[in-house]
Write a structure and sequence with these properties.
GO terms for molecular function: carbon-nitrogen ligase activity, with glutamine as amido-N-donor; transferase activity. By secondary structure, this protein is an all-alpha fold. The protein has three helices and no strands. It has helices at about 1-5, 10-20, 30-45.
Amino acid sequence: MDMIAERGLGAMGPLMGAVMQRLGGSADGKAVSDALRRKIAELDD
């Protein structure tokens, strides 16, 4: 949460890497990216 508060959408890269690593690369990258972008936008409001 701190990273999102500090970086906003700039947190996408590190978070995307962490999520894809956690999921073992089995998820669709575009779907993960879209979901992260929406969630960050919600939290950044």
